[in-house]
Design goal:
In the C-terminal section; belongs to the purine/pyrimidine phosphoribosyltransferase family. Its cofactor is Mg(2+); [4Fe-4S] cluster. This protein folds into two domains: about 35-260, Aminohydrolase, N-terminal nucleophile (Ntn) domain (Glutamine Phosphoribosylpyrophosphate, subunit 1, domain 1); about 285-455, Rossmann fold, CATH 3.40.50.2020. Helix content is about 30%, strand content about 25%. It is built from 19 helices and 23 strands. The chain has a seven-stranded antiparallel β-sheet, covered by helices on one side. A six-stranded antiparallel β-sheet has the order 5-6-7-8-12-13. Strands 17-20-21-22 form a four-stranded parallel β-sheet, sandwiched between helices. A hairpin with a 4-residue loop joins strand 7 (about 185-195) and strand 8. Helix 2 (about 45-55) crosses helix 8, helix 6 packs across helix 7 (about 175-185) and helix 10 (about 285-300) crosses helix 11 (about 315-325). It is globular, with a radius of gyration of 23 Å.
Length: about 500
């Protein structure tokens, strides 16, 4: 190794994962965010810490918890992982029985501390804290209108527009929240807290997941059920589209701010984002992904020696494919568990070899074998090509790539950080052209109907299985208004 290479910094910025979402060496899709709320438990901050730790995969740039004791807020936010942001002393200082917490990946707004959530505000009626998972499509338009009438924004986060809409309303707090939520368009799961109230809301299409649980007399809310399991809470139900829950000293009130629209939970939650031990709409993620693998085998059987999955999100699907075909499942690829989903930004010299820092091919398993490589998606194609070449370098005689989702052709506007359409390889290349680009012997994608069938769950009989599949078929469930003509395709 040359002196010049060792002298290069391994990352830029003040901390290891600063801004990696924008220039990661891996072209995987970026998570939205994770939210966690507690009402009525004296250890609200500690429960939030463990809940956010379970949701860490949904955001690694920043973490925050805001707690109230009924009189005042205590909160802490920092850039970095949950375990780095909070320690025993910090948690001990966050006293109160009601809290909201957040882990963030910056799909909207810069990667900096001022955008870390929960966002905290002072307004005429006291303290206000807001945390959300998702993205507000018309936030730039609302922000411009508010600024023209005197609003001064402290962040670049789209979430702040909701705080301004609430604060400027002359109505009581709950009606102000309802009016604010009716004005915004997008996919969102909101947690809004004052010193005496906790409000939970889901967008009219249910694009972003949010669930409710119970722990003794306390109510728990989380982006995924795995966070409920972590603290020993019992799942009660999912929060429905357009639903508004209000928790205060009078108990739980179930309300709504609008009528539900077409159910459209993000398909990528099933395919990639959510943890395999989580349940969505009555469907366990591990089981659903196994069914995706089985369906993939029915649609695209390949005669090969072994099946391997790209860790971690594709392992369940690989097992399902192997079970359906009888081809042995092997751990042909191993993940370095200490890199996290957003690894450090390496120097340019290391960038081309960067995938090896995160994944390794097991030579003794793949050498001399015809390998089926199962993965969940192809974004730009660069990572797929690196992994295929890694398997070939390890001695694989053939590498067949099977993707357990349809081709990803369109950008997401509801909370997933996707590249411009021109950077999505499937938007401009045929399957055969993509196969050549990634150097695979064959390439196939799961059909949209196959995906819907595999997901199943409580929404199986709804339109498109209750899924948003706009990234595959350009059929967006909401209007997309960017300051010009409103439309449902892009």
């Amino acid at each position: 190794m040359s002196h010049e290479l060792t002298a290069q910094p391994l990352w830029t910025g003040d901390y290891y994962n600063e801004g990696t979402g924008r220039s990661d060496i891996f072209d995987t899709l970026k998570e939205e965010c994770g939210v966690f709320g507690v009402y009525g438990h004296q250890d609200a901050a500690t429960l939030s810490y463990y809940g956010l730790h379970a949701l860490q995969h949904r955001g690694e740039e920043s973490a925050g918890i805001c707690v109230t004791n009924g009189v005042q807020f205590n909160y802490h936010r920092e850039m970095g992982l949950v375990k780095e942001v909070f320690d025993k002393d910090r948690l001990a200082s966050l006293t109160g029985d009601m809290s909201i917490g957040h882990v963030r990946y910056s799909t909207s707004g810069d990667s900096r501390l001022t955008n870390a959530q929960p966002l905290i505000f002072k307004y005429r009626d006291g303290d206000l804290a807001i945390a959300t998972n998702g993205n507000i499509v018309n936030a730039p338009l609302i922000r411009k209108e508010l600024e023209q009438t005197g609003s001064i924004f402290q962040t670049t986060s789209d979430t702040e527009v909701v705080a301004h809409l609430i604060a400027r309303s002359s109505k009581d707090f709950i009606e102000a929240v309802k009016d604010a939520l009716r004005k915004i368009v997008g996919g969102f799961a909101f947690m809004i807290m004052t010193n005496d109230k906790l409000v939970i809301a889901s967008d009219p299409n249910g694009l972003r997941p949010i669930t409710m649980g119970r722990l003794g007399d306390a109510y728990i809310f989380a982006s995924e059920t795995c966070a409920l399991e972590t603290i020993g809470a019992e799942l009660v139900r999912d929060i429905g589209p357009g639903e508004l829950l209000i928790l205060d000293r009078g108990g739980l009130r179930e309300d709504r701010f609008t009528e539900p629209q077409r159910k459209a939970l993000c398909a990528m939650e099933y395919i990639y984002f959510a943890r395999p031990d989580s349940d969505l709409n009555g469907a366990n993620l591990h089981s659903a992904r196994k069914r995706m693998g089985r369906q993939m085998a029915l649609e695209s059987f390949i005669d090969a020696d072994i099946v391997t999955g790209v860790p971690d999100s594709s392992l369940s699907a690989a097992i399902g494919y192997a079970e359906q075909t009888g081809i042995p499942y092997e751990m042909g690829l191993i993940k370095n568990k200490y890199t996290g989903r957003t690894f450090i930004q390496p120097s340019q010299e290391l960038r081309e070899q960067g995938v090896k820092m995160k994944l390794s091919a097991v030579r003794s398993v793949v050498s001399g074998k015809r390998v089926i490589m199962i993965d969940d998606s192809i974004v730009r194609g660069t990572t797929s090509r690196r992994i295929v070449n890694m398997l070939r370098d390890a001695g694989a005689t053939e590498v067949h790539v099977l993707i357990t989702s349809p081709p990803f052709k369109n950008p997401c506007f509801y909370g997933i950080d996707t590249p411009d359409r021109k950077e999505l390889i499937a938007s401009s290349k045929s399957i055969e052209e993509i196969r050549k680009e990634i150097n695979a012997d064959s390439l196939a994608f799961l059909s949209p109907k196959g995906l819907i069938k595999a997901v199943g769950g409580n929404s199986a009989n709804e339109y498109k299985g209750g899924l948003c599949m706009a990234c595959f078929d350009n059929d967006y469930p909401t209007k997309l208004d960017f300051g010009g003509e409103e439309k449902r395709s892009f």
